[in-house]
Design goal:
2 domains, five-stranded mixed sheet, single chain, rod-shaped, alpha+beta, about 10% strand, about 35% helix
Length: about 325
C-alpha cells in the first residue's frame, strides 16, 4: 500500500485568525489579474517561502506587511528570516514594495504599500503595472459596526396614472420669462399665444447661458414711448439681441499620474519602477542576502543535499513559469 508523502513545509496559519492591520493608507494591496486560489499555489517555492507566501496570500488588503508584524504573526521564523523570505518572494515575482505620495486635507505624505500577486509576474509586467500608476487608492476606512436600517412605513399602493392621464409638464423657463414681461413693463404685455410663438427664440437665449433677469433687462431697456405691436418688438429684439454663443469650456486636464516609487525589498531604497528589477536595487542585487539561507530541496531524490543560491533558484522557477 503506497503511503502519500506529506509536504515538509509547515502549514500557514488559518486565514480566520486575527491579523494586524496597517496604519491607514499602508499595508497590503492585491495586484490585478490574479488566478483563483488553488492548493498548488507556491508549490515550487522552498519551505520557508511557501509558508510565508501562504500566510500573506490570505491576508486582506490593508493588513500589515512589514517584517516586524509578520515575524510576530509567524513565530516559526524571526525578523531576519522573514526579511530574506520577502526578498526571495520579490525575486520570484510575487511582491513589490511601493512608495506612494498621498494628498489629503491639504497635506502630502508618503506611504509604503506592498503589492502582492499570487501569480508570479516578471519584471516587465511589474514595471508596466507600476509605471502606469497602479490603483493604490486612498486610505481605506476602518470597518464600522453594522447599523440597523429604519423600517419604512407600509403605505397602500398608489394607482399609477395611465399614459392618457399623464400630468402635463409645467411651462418652460423661456415661456415664463415672456409671460412675466407685462408685469415688469406693461408696454410688452404678451398673450398666451404670443408667448407660445416666441418661446423657441427665448429658449435659445437660455441655451447660451443667460437667465430670466438678463433676458428681461435686454427686452425692456430703451423702449419707445409707444409700442404698437408688443409681439413684433419682442420678436425683433429676441432675434437681433441674441447673446453670442460662448465656446464650450475647455476640458479639464487629465489628473496627474500618482507618483509611484518602487522600494528595494532589501534596503528600502526608492527608485522608478523599471530601475529595480526583482524588486532590488543594484547594490543589493550584487550582494548576497542577509542572514543564513536555508538549503533548497534537491531536484534528484538521491542527489546530495547542498545549499543553493535562493535568488538564482527563484529566477529559474520564474523562467520556467514563463515557458509555454
Amino acid at each position: 500500500m503506497a503511503i502519500q508523502q506529506s509536504s515538509s513545509a509547515p502549514s500557514a496559519p488559518a486565514s480566520s485568525r486575527p491579523y494586524r492591520r496597517a496604519r491607514t493608507g499602508y499595508g497590503k494591496r492585491s495586484a490585478p489579474g490574479q488566478r483563483p486560489s488553488a492548493p498548488t499555489d507556491f508549490a515550487l517555492l522552498p519551505a520557508r517561502e511557501r509558508y510565508v507566501a501562504g500566510y500573506v496570500d490570505h491576508l486582506p488588503d490593508g493588513a500589515a506587511m512589514d517584517i516586524k508584524s509578520l515575524a510576530k504573526d509567524l513565530p516559526l521564523y524571526g525578523q531576519m528570516a522573514i526579511g530574506t523570505a520577502l526578498r526571495a518572494l520579490a525575486v520570484a515575482g510575487h511582491l513589490r514594495h511601493v512608495r506612494c505620495r498621498v494628498e489629503s486635507l491639504g497635506q502630502s505624505r508618503w506611504v509604503t504599500l506592498t503589492f502582492w500577486s499570487r501569480t508570479a509576474r516578471d519584471n516587465e509586467w511589474w514595471a508596466l503595472q507600476l509605471a502606469g500608476g497602479a490603483d493604490v487608492g486612498e486610505s481605506e476606512p476602518e470597518p464600522e459596526a453594522a447599523k440597523e436600517e429604519p423600517v419604512a412605513p407600509v403605505v397602500p399602493q398608489q394607482r399609477v396614472p395611465e399614459a392618457s392621464e399623464a400630468v402635463p409638464a409645467g411651462p418652460s423657463p423661456a415661456y415664463l420669462a415672456l409671460a412675466r414681461l407685462g408685469r415688469v413693463e406693461p408696454r410688452l404685455a404678451l398673450s398666451a399665444a404670443d408667448c407660445a410663438a416666441l418661446e423657441s427664440l427665448a429658449a435659445t437665449w437660455f441655451a447660451r447661458g443667460v437667465d430670466a433677469d438678463y433676458l428681461t433687462r435686454a427686452l425692456t431697456s430703451g423702449l419707445p414711448e409707444q409700442v404698437g405691436s408688443p409681439v413684433g418688438l419682442v420678436r425683433r429684439r429676441l432675434t437681433d439681441k441674441a447673446p453670442a454663443r460662448l465656446p464650450d469650456a475647455a476640458p479639464a486636464p487629465d489628473a496627474p499620474v500618482r507618483a509611484l516609487l518602487v522600494e528595494c525589498t532589501e534596503c528600502g531604497r526608492p527608485g522608478p519602477p523599471g530601475a529595480l528589477p526583482d524588486g532590488l536595487c543594484r547594490p543589493c542585487r550584487q550582494s548576497p542576502p542577509a542572514g543564513p539561507v536555508e538549503p533548497v530541496e534537491p531536484v534528484e531524490p538521491d542527489g546530495p543535499a547542498a545549499e543553493r543560491d535562493i535568488e538564482a533558484h527563484m529566477r529559474l522557477l520564474r523562467e520556467k513559469l514563463r515557458m509555454p
